[in-house]
Design brief:
Strand order of the largest sheet: 3-2-1-4-5-7-12
CATH superfamily of the largest domain: NAD(P)-binding Rossmann-like Domain
Helix content: 25-40%
CATH topology of the largest domain: Rossmann fold
Structural class: alpha/beta
CATH class of the largest domain: Alpha Beta
CATH architecture of the largest domain: 3-Layer(aba) Sandwich
Strand content: 15-25%
Distance between the termini: 41 Å
Number of helices: 9
Length: 301
């Protein structure tokens, strides 16, 4: 059986890849300081600090995984764009890569970000759109991408790098866009937004996890955009949320100051994901938003 380590398996995105990996025939070993409870009995949990390289070395030597899926990174909301913790994440990710190669691993997939791209150029296309990040987070992710590409070539590893665009779903930080609209509406309070004309590509974490599981189980190499391929304005997304919550005319557009450097359009080309990886969303965004709203109804903060 194929054996996979999922670094950051208890995280916002990582948790959503676990069950699809089981369905794909993997023996799944999730590494996280906060193992998940509930319906995850088929997952082998390892409570290991990803900065404890001695413990990680022992774990990799014991398990000898054939595959590695790495979501681990510093992502604290409001801090991660410019935090020096990004450099620690870069160091830790490269060490994990080394340990995987040392124990005979075959295929590795890591999570990147759309922040590696130069924005304001239309749809971001792998291998065509210029890579020119404007943040510490994007720069460190891009550095890891280049390291992975070179390291895999030298060591004969199969590899892929999934560039995640905009996500939403259960367990999201309440201050992020979707819950920042959903929660006030569920509590019959006004929700404040910027002008809402920004065009983005949003995808549920359930679908992001499924896409990564398909990617790591296959053989496609290189950078792959992980996105829906369906650009929508923030106003359109708010409209879907309003319909699902039956709360109308309670979103106050223009109440929040728009960040001057906020690009008007950040969207993804998804041809490689659809044609080469063989994955595309099978559930509409509207349904995924409704599922997320139902989750928040049961988990109001």
């Amino acid at each position: 059986m194929k054996k996979i380590i999922v670094a950051g398996g208890g995280g916002f995105v990582g948790r959503q890849a676990l069950k699809p990996l089981i369905e794909a025939g993997f023996e799944v070993h999730a590494v996280d300081l906060n193992p998940l409870k509930g319906d995850f009995s088929e997952i082998h949990w390892h409570n290991v600090d990803l900065y404890d390289f001695a413990a990680l070395k022992e774990l990799f030597a014991e398990l000898r995984p054939t595959h590695l899926l790495n979501f681990a990174w510093f992502t604290r909301h409001g801090e991660y764009w410019s935090s020096p913790e990004n450099f620690k994440s870069l160091t830790a990710n490269f060490k994990i890569l080394e340990l995987f190669a040392e124990c005979g691993g075959k295929r590795i997939v890591m999570a990147g970000t759309c922040a590696e791209y130069e924005w304001n150029t239309g749809a971001c296309i792998e291998g065509i759109t210029k890579l020119e990040p404007k943040t510490v987070y994007g720069s460190c992710k891009l550095a890891m991408y280049e390291l992975l590409k070179s390291f895999a070539r030298v060591n004969g590893l199969s590899w892929a790098w999934g560039r995640i665009f905009f996500v939403f779903g259960p367990f999201e930080n309440p201050r992020r866009f979707v819950p920042a609209v959903v929660l006030p509406l569920l509590q019959s309070r006004p929700a404040t937004c910027s002008h809402g004309n920004q065009i983005r590509d949003f995808l549920s974490t359930k679908d992001v996890g499924s896409a990564f599981a398909t990617l790591v189980a296959g053989e496609v190499q290189g950078a792959i955009n992980i996105a829906s391929g369906r650009p929508l304005s923030l106003k359109q997304i708010v409209g879907i949320i309003e319909s699902a919550t039956t709360s109308y005319n309670m979103v106050k557009f223009g109440e929040l100051t728009n960040v001057p450097e906020d690009p008007p359009i950040i969207i993804a080309a998804t041809e490689r994901l659809r044609r080469e990886v063989g994955w595309m969303p099978t559930v509409a965004l509207e349904e995924r938003l409704a599922e997320t709203i139902d989750w928040w109804k049961n988990n109001l903060v």
